[in-house]
Write a structure and sequence with these properties.
There is one protein chain. The protein is an alpha/beta fold and 296 residues long. The chain has one domain: Glycoside hydrolase/deacetylase (TIM Barrel), CATH 3.20.20.370. Helices cover 41% and strands 15% of the residues. The strands form 2 sheets. Strands 1, 2, 3, 4, 7, 8 and 9 form a 7-stranded parallel beta sheet that branches. Strands 5-6 form a two-stranded antiparallel ribbon. Helix 2 links the parallel strand 1 and strand 2. Helix 5 packs parallel to helix 6. About 4% of the residues have low confidence.
Length: 296
């Protein structure tokens, strides 16, 4: 695929490696907010996204109001994946929206949302989450999608419309005609998204080149794994995501994958990894510079 036009607009060359070191699921529980706040102060992350429907959203918003320089986006949320810790839509109570499961919360997984939620309901919910964040004093730098639920051909227009209306970038990787991107239960040929990417870039909307992440199924040796991933970044802009949390009884009760979330946090709180990021030659940016570029 052609080099990302954003690189030169930001003053970089086509061969430069840029990375957005991004923390997801902020506000899902107290442990996620505490981890994010510590990591932001420590300086190993450059961006984050808050889950507006979740219980610790108000506390996250309070932190953002006290730290207005923060690079905080909206982690647009249409699923509630845990067994005993749930949340639901903030825009409607109508079961006909397709946003609810039988228990009255968001569906656990992506396929029921992607197959059954109405586009109108999805559009209203994503907009409501964005508007509530602004109402609570957050200045969103971008929108991304919890569990990638919105990156589905039937729903993606709601995602893009909310972001472009607010003039903020959204996490959508550029893909070429030879690739495929898995969207929930349906693997869509990349050319269906290639046309979309081309249209968006013609409109001047900045996009990342790829999506990468730290695993949630293996807590071992995460410092060296993070080094390997960051060392091997290709040219372009990578949205590099992980899910840090401090180790609390609440977290252990909520998340079966809590050891990896804690390991994510501890790895990026290490001086060893901080020094590696500083010296490796990758350029760390946040979504705020992409938002400013889009608005400029």
């Amino acid at each position: 695929m052609n080099p990302n036009p954003v690189l030169k607009k930001l003053g970089y060359s086509d061969d430069d490696k840029l990375v957005i070191i991004h923390t997801d699921d902020i506000g899902m529980c107290q442990a996620s907010l505490d981890a994010f706040a510590n990591l932001w102060d420590f300086g190993t992350i450059s961006s984050a996204a808050v889950m507006v429907p979740c219980p610790w959203f108000p506390a996250t918003a309070e932190w953002c109001r006290k730290n207005p320089e923060v690079d905080m986006g909206i982690h647009a949320t249409l699923t509630a994946e845990w067994d005993s810790y749930r949340w639901g839509p903030i825009s409607t109570v109508e079961r006909a929206s397709g946003l609810f499961d039988d228990e009255g919360y968001f569906h656990h997984l992506e396929p029921p949302v992607q197959a059954g939620a109405t586009l109108e309901a999805v559009r209203a919910e994503v907009q409501a989450q964005f508007d509530k964040a602004v109402q609570f004093g957050i200045f969103p730098t971008h929108i991304d999608a919890h569990m990638l639920t919105l990156l589905h051909p039937r729903l993606i227009s709601a995602y893009i419309e909310t972001a472009t209306r607010a003039k903020v970038p959204f996490m959508l990787p550029r893909i070429d005609s030879e690739a495929e991107m898995g969207m929930g239960s349906d693997a869509q040929p990349a050319y269906e998204f290639g046309t979309l990417v081309q249209q968006l870039e013609e409109q001047g909307i900045p996009l990342v080149d790829r999506f990468d992440w730290m695993p949630l199924d293996d807590p071992d040796d995460q410092i060296n794994l993070a080094k390997k991933k960051l060392r091997e970044l290709p040219a372009g802009i990578t949205h590099f995501v992980f899910h840090p949390s401090t180790d609390t009884p609440e977290l252990r009760a909520i998340c079966p994958d809590w050891p990896s979330r804690v390991a994510n946090y501890e790895a990026f709180m290490s001086k060893e990894l901080k020094d590696f990021i500083k010296n490796e030659g990758v350029q760390v940016i946040g979504y705020k510079v992409l938002r400013d570029l889009m608005r400029g």
